[in-house]
Amino acid sequence: MLRLKKSGRTKYEITSDGRPLTVIEGRSGGQFRLDGGSYLIRRRLRTYRLLTADGSVLASAHRPGTRSWSVETAGSVLRFRRTGRRDHDQVDEAGNTLGTVTAESADLPGVEPELQVFVLAALAMRSRRRRVVVVAGR
Questions:
Q1: pTM of the entire predicted model
Q2: Distances in Å between the alpha carbon of 69 and those of 8, 78, 94, 108?
Q3: Which residue(s) pair with 105 in the sheet?
Q4: Which residues contact 75 (CB under 8 A, 6 or more apart)?
Q5: End-to-end distance of the chain based on CA atoms, in angstroms?
Q6: Dihedral sign from CA coordinates of 46, 51, 56, 61
Q7: Residue 129's beta-bridge partner residues?
Q8: Given Cys at both, which of 45, 59, 96, 102 links 50, Cβ 3.0 to 4.6 Å?
Q9: What is the pLDDT of residues 8-29, one digit of tens each?
């Protein structure tokens, strides 16, 4: 299971089963290293993209955190459904639960580690942006 801890305004520390895994720095995107690879997360409007260091797109998530959303990768789609205010289930086409994710943790069995980090970070960044908008709109 991955856990995300926000430290500072734009730094996210991600652990796997209590051991440090990676760090992402950035408000609405950022860079992280994992298993010797370097990855970038970029946001444009309501879409987050996971890129390799050379700029190739590995995955994209449109409007993470909404009622139903998905992450598209080369040849597959990870589907998510909101089950609570901050809880989301990864579901298959029949609606069966495969894993869970919140803005602080992810348990996504069978999903590549870089995609798990991306899903967790995109949801956390989206949640942060929504809180900022609500506070600023008062």
A1: 0.85
A2: 28, 9, 15, 15
A3: 3
A4: none
A5: 36
A6: negative
A7: none
A8: 59
A9: 777 899 999 999 999 998 777 8
Distance between CA atoms of residues 135 and 97, nearest Å:
33
In sequence order, what are the residues at sequence separation of 6 or more whose Cβ sits closer than 8 angstroms to the Cβ of residue 102?
86, 87, 88, 123
Highest CATH level, class, for 2-136: mainly beta
How crowded is the C-beta side of 8, counted as CA atoms within 13 Å? 9
Other C-beta atoms closer than 10 Å to the C-beta of 124 total: 24
25-45: pLDDT as tens digits: 877 789 999 999 999 999 988
pLDDT at 71 over 70: yes
Whole-number Å distance between alpha carbons of 15 and 76: 26
- The two tokens of residue 112 are 């590549």
